[in-house]
Amino acid sequence: MCPVHESRRGSRPTVARGSTRPTSRDVAQAAGVSQAAVSLVLGDKWRGRVSETTAERVREAARELGYRPNLAARNLRLGRTRTVLLVVPALTTEFFAGVYTGAARVAARHGFGVVLYPSPEGVGP
């Protein structure tokens, strides 16, 4: 868990410098709720289970801490990878660097990651 501290400006929580990125546990601590409540709110399954006030507190804490869900952990839990394999013949050319950059940008917009597979023959695994 990364340390959560009060900022100098007031009661706004921050993550200590040099620590890992904030976790759902950090969001829960900052919002004064359980990790289960954070999971419900950030997974958009809170209605009827968590009050609107609590949900807003969780969203605000997540924003202030800069929380982003760990997509690898989520995909592992859900049993899907949401990963695209990009087979390229060479990683050293500017052209394929651009292909990768464009593919990664489009994939990210749709919630996918890109894994590179360098293959001099241009054939996948």
Task: Report on the architecture of this protein.
The two termini are 38 Å apart. Helix content is 43%, strand content 14%. The strands form two sheets. Strands 1-2 form a two-stranded antiparallel ribbon. It has two domains: 4-69, Orthogonal Bundle (434 Repressor (Amino-terminal Domain)); 76-118, no CATH class. Strand 1 and strand 2 (13-15) form a beta hairpin. The protein has 125 residues and is α+β, with helices and mostly antiparallel strands. It has helices at 24-31, 35-42, 52-65, 71-78, 94-109; strands spanning 4-6, 13-15, 83-88, 113-118. The chain is built from five helices and four strands.
Radius of gyration: 19 Å
Q: H/E element string? A: EEHHHHEHE
Low-confidence region ranges: none
CATH superfamily grouping of the largest domain: lambda repressor-like DNA-binding domains
Gap from first CA to last CA: 38 Å
Percent of residues in beta strands? 5-15%
